[in-house]
Amino acid sequence: MRLRAVHLVRWGLPLALMAVGAAIVWGTEAEGVGESLIAAGVCVFIANWLFRFAFRDSKDREREERAREYFDEHGHWPSD
Hints:
Blueprint: H1 2-27, H2 31-74
Helix pairs in contact: 1-2
């Protein structure tokens, strides 16, 4: 259930915003509203990507720290 919600926010929300914005741009004369929704969808997608990038970086740091602790105990780097 949690994974489904994450995917909904990560992919569904930005795609829905961009789809509704595109429909407004091509279907009515309220182009500014549609363009704003498209821009909001792009911003949500970029924000999600930045969060994922930040968390991946912390996982790399944790893995490096464990490798350093292993090196301190055994005198050599762990094999990957």
